[in-house]
């Protein structure tokens, strides 16, 4: 309650009189001998009027306060609303161009992705066809290589290779030297007819190094076979140094045949097993009445381990 209200309520409390806001005295409380003063009957009505005026004044103040609070709240709401509208307008102005740019970029990316999908499909189809073509070409290349190896082998069919013949041997007339050497060492009836002979094409070795091989071509095939047959059963020596005679093969075939070296060394310890290398590089094994042919050294060794070493 305000100060104004407190002052008014205090004016109601006169000396000797009851507080008009309190309950009026009951008749029973008035004992005999209590004297009634003039004007006592008018006080209760004045108290009611003062209360009503106080209530009315309080109500007007409450209404005024309510109006002020509502006005303050509405002003604050309007202020917040204006701020939000301004922020939303700024945000919209900033967002709309970005969204427009994003839509444009997305459309461009969609077009690009569609083009990439088409290109990927075309590349996939082309790759599939190329894979088939590469497989076909690989098969053709394998056949061509095999044909080249075969043709080179036939071109070397009459060739022989003399290994470890001393470099001091006179090579100005190589064919005469080689034919005479073969006749003397192998005890041939006559000199074999040699078409050509030369040292292998590499730098001349230093003292103590292995001499260059002599490669020669025998004119007649049967003479070449006779030379190989006698060389297998003869100790070959020239100028006090031993040498060997082998069939001349191309480097590719020589590497393929050398890969069977381990298998051949194992088979040498089994006299009851017949074996040999067939052109270009196939190991033939005859064991217990059965013949086997291997093109892979690993397969040959596996067969030897399973069937020959255990027997």
Keywords:
single chain, 311 residues, alpha+beta, Alpha-Beta Plaits, Rec A Protein, domain 2, 3 domains, 4-stranded antiparallel β-sheet, 3-stranded antiparallel β-sheet, 9 strands, 13% strand, rod-shaped, Transposase_22
Describe this structure in words.
This protein has 311 residues and is α+β, with helices and mostly antiparallel strands. It folds into three domains: 67-153; 157-248, Alpha-Beta Plaits; 249-311, Rec A Protein, domain 2 (2-Layer Sandwich). It is 56% helix and 13% strand. The protein is built from seven helices and nine strands; from the N terminus they run ααβαββαβββααβββα. The protein has helices at residues 3-11, 43-155, 174-186, 221-232, 251-258, 261-267, 297-308; strands spanning 159-163, 194-199, 214-218, 237-238, 241-242, 244-247, 274-278, 282-287, 290-294. It has a four-stranded antiparallel sheet. It has a three-stranded antiparallel sheet with strand order 7-8-9, with helices on one face. Helix 6 runs parallel beside helix 7. Mean pLDDT is 83; it is low at 1-43.
Spell out the blueprint of helices and strands.
Elements: H1 3-11, H2 43-155, E1 159-163, H3 174-186, E2 194-199, E3 214-218, H4 221-232, E4 237-238, E5 241-242, E6 244-247, H5 251-258, H6 261-267, E7 274-278, E8 282-287, E9 290-294, H7 297-308
Antiparallel strand pairs: 1-3, 1-6, 2-3, 4-5, 7-8, 8-9
Helix pairs in contact: 6-7
Summarize the structure.
It comes from Oncorhynchus tshawytscha. The protein has 311 residues and is an alpha+beta fold.
């Amino acid at each position: 309650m305000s100060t104004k209200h407190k002052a008014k309520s205090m004016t109601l409390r006169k000396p000797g009189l009851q507080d008009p806001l309190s309950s009026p005295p009951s008749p029973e409380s008035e004992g005999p001998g209590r004297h009634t003063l003039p004007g006592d009957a008018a006080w209760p009505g004045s108290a009611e009027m003062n209360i009503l005026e106080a209530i009315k004044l309080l109500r007007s103040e409450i209404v005024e306060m309510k109006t002020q609070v509502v006005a303050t709240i509405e002003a604050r709401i309007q202020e917040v609303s204006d701020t939000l509208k301004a922020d939303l307008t700024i945000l919209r102005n900033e967002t709309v161009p970005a969204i427009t740019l994003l839509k444009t970029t997305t459309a461009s990316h969609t077009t690009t992705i569609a083009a990439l999908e088409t290109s990927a499909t075309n590349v996939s189809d082309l790759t599939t066809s190329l894979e088939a073509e590469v497989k076909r070409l690989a098969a053709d290349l394998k056949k061509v290589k095999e044909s080249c190896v075969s043709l080179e082998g036939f071109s070397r069919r009459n060739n022989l290779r003399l290994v470890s013949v001393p470099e001091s041997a006179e090579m100005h007339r190589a064919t005469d030297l080689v034919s005479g050497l073969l006749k003397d060492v192998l005890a041939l009836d006559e000199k074999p007819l040699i078409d050509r002979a030369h040292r292998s094409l590499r730098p001349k070795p230093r003292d103590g190094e292995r001499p260059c091989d002599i490669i020669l071509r025998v004119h007649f095939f049967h003479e070449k076979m006779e030379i190989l047959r006698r060389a297998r059963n003869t100790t070959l020596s020239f100028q006090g140094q031993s040498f060997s005679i082998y069939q001349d093969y191309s480097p590719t075939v020589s590497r393929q045949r050398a890969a069977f070296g381990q298998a051949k060394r194992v088979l040498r310890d089994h006299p009851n097993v017949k074996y040999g290398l067939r052109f270009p590089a196939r190991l033939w094994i005859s064991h217990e009445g059965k013949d086997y042919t291997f093109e892979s050294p690993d397969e040959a060794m596996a067969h030897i381990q399973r069937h020959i070493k255990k027997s």
